[in-house]
Amino acid sequence: MRKSKWNWPVFLTGPIWFGYRKMYAECTIYVAALSLISIFLMLIGSESSVGFAGAGIGISIMANEMYYKKSKKAVDKIMQYHSSPEVRRNLVIQKGGTSGWGILYAIAIFIVFIVIEIIIEEALLYR
Predict the structure, then answer these.
(1) SS3 label, residue 63
(2) Closest to 113 in 3D by CA, of 44, 17, 21, 14
(3) 120: CB partners within 8 A, 6+ apart
(4) Using the 8-state DSSP alphabet, how is residue 99 labeled?
(5) Per 3-state DSSP, what percentage of the chain is helix, strand, and coil (rounded to 5)?
(6) pLDDT tens across 85-116, in order?
(7) pLDDT tens, residue by residue, 33-76
(8) What is the pTM of this model?
(9) Strand, helix or coil at 126?
(10) Do the beta carbons of residue 35 and residue 28 sit within 8 Å?
């Protein structure tokens, strides 16, 4: 598995990349962090998007390392608990790879957090 210091796909697509790579918790945390930054910026009345750029760049730098560690941990666990080569192979195939459903998960999570942000923004505007 290739490890890179910079990961353009994550910077450009963010949560969709995490969903595609079956990193569902990381996807949710990423979207939640962006939402919290957005809510914070709303509260202080800032229109700046520096926080979003910083989060995107930070996650991009760490994304491949996160994926590598998660994959290695899953493979090590499979190797530890299963002795049959056929079972190991099937479990690695099942756990690894990519997921089209993960993309839909990421989009759904993104929509949920956007709705939450809109509700909070409306509450802040009409208080």
Answers:
(1) helix
(2) 14
(3) 39, 42
(4) -
(5) 80, 0, 20
(6) 899 999 988 888 888 899 999 999 989 988 98
(7) 888 888 888 888 776 666 667 777 788 778 888 989 999 999 99
(8) 0.77
(9) coil
(10) no
